[in-house]
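Suppose you are handed a protein chain with no further information: no name, no annotation, nothing but its sequence. What can you learn? This example shows the usual starting point.
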Amino acid sequence: MKQSVLCVALFGVIALPFYAYAETLDEVVVTATRFKDVSVDKPINVTVISQSDIQQSSARTLPELLSGEAGISMRDLFGNNAAATTVDMRGFGAAAGQNTLILLDGRRITDPDLSGVQWAAIPFSAIERIEILRGSGAVLYGGGTTGGVINIITRTPEASGNSAHASVRGGSYGLSEVQAGGSYFSGKAGLDLTASKLNSQGYRANNRNEQTNAQANFRWLTEAGELSARLGMDSQNIQLPGGRTVQTAVGIDQVRTDPRGAATPLDYASRDGNQLALDWQQTLGAVDLNIGLATRNKNQKSYFDWGGFPAYRDGDLNVTSFTPRARIPHDLGGDSSLVVGVDMHRWRYGQRVSNAVANIGQPINRIGMQQQNDALYLQNTTHLGKATTLLAGVRNERISMAGNDTYNAAAPGAFFGSAAPAASFAATGNAYELALRHQLDSGLAFNGKIGSSFRFANVDEIYESGAAFTNQFQFLRPQTSSGIEFGVDQRTQAGSWRATVFNSRVNDEIHLDPFTTGTGNTNLPPSRRQGVELEGKWQALQKLVLNANYSYTDARFLSGVMPGGAFTQLNVNIAGKRVPLVANQKANLGASWLASEQTRLNAALTYVGSQFMENDEANTLGIKIPSYSLFDIKLVHEMKGWQVNAAVNNLFDRRYFTYAVSSQFTPGRYNAYTLPGRTLFVGLSYQQ
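A reasonable first move is to predict its three-dimensional structure. Written in structure tokens, the prediction is:
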């Protein structure tokens, strides 16, 4: 309670000056309507993280940067360059990765599996800005947007001009990183290139991480549009240390006695991806037209020893997308524009399972899945006057899936196995959004929105074992949600502030059921997310910028009982219980001081409240993931194109973890994933 009162008070100190200073700022251009547009008159809850914001931040990774914003938290397993890290918007816990949609230049990089986003494949130097849409995006982008949408926009040659840059960075736990790039633009055509390589031993034993990225962005401008192409590749090899076990009843506490140890010294994984995206944009009269075509593939390999019962997996995922859309101005009901589009995605997934790398040519199981998503959407924006804007949109999306599996009883390591019978599935998801914004002469604006969203189960959530422990495809009902939110905001020359309250109900939430033996993932009983988000940024002095945000999130089940099974608890009542892995309270405070024309000092304080562990849906374990506070500082000095920076994260060397899972077999036992203490990083860069 003390933390919440303090955070609200600090937010009030930052927001108060804006009431007396309401001069209008320059317009901010975003792509929240899938076209370049002005954000300040749209009834959308959007935050833009600029290139300047990224440079000033002490964040080491994209998830750390995002978690500095209101309503966003992150869950990190290892603290090693964002490997195995999930971003959570508005409290979805273990299912956060499937309820927050991540886009790269407007295209999905959230895949229909549980592998998660490859955050390290997008270096900071390649980013122009990041757009965050909270609780919105289902109409324009489809499933998996219940929490919201994060769109990462990369640098373009016309914006970068003729330039070159290079940087090196080193730090704690054997980290070394090199980045280089350049941009050329002739007035009609241009090319932007970025490449990076990182190596780190990691905080934990058996957690070495090697990451390589490269991307090229080409633009050719025409009289009424442009043709663009983006090519990218990424490669990661990482060792997986597992969790630290705690069971105080028998004297086990590896979090305290051996936080850096490895429970799984033989486990590892690799991931290689490639992507190509083409866009043709053209203005035909008053109509803006965009035709997009993209293809992306990734290969993932992993080895898990499982206590002497090893499993080696080799999987491929390919997607092709065709996304034509148009923005049509009209005067029906006022000054209006209609965005209409079609999204077509074709996914192919294949996986081979064996007991060793050498035997993957003769797999035990060979699993295949094909998925098609086809959608039509309409979104209309009407200016009812100079101060009032109405937005309305609808989407209809159909999914079809077909899976097959073969089992080879003669394969090395095959025993007690089975093949899932071939199966298929089809479903439809619908979404709508209705929003209104009204702005007063003072710059104070009021926003209201109601809407709905949906999510389909992904391939990893469908392929599971049945009650008799035989493999099968378990197709689940689509998840649906409906919500309402209200916000007040103001932007001035002194800064900006925003306050939002929201409430959403989720039905048939797709989630792992740890209680019911042999059913894997299932549709959960109804749940609710509601909360308050406060954020503000203030130019307190000529050389001092302050920012603060506070989030209160209440995520809980409304009703329901988990039936359980022979090896777990029986008839677990979850009605009124809080959703695991969701902290009620989170706050961020930041300051950026320009000590001289060449030197800037940045500081950031983060507080995250306690939360229930995964598998503790009943809230009965009696132990929670403890709350924690982290303090980071960063010093930057620039001179004639050179920049030297030094950062200390977790300055006070706090011990903490953001993920823990409780045992369903042994009461009082859990595994926690400890994160680094104090870390130091030093970097040198040059830009021309």
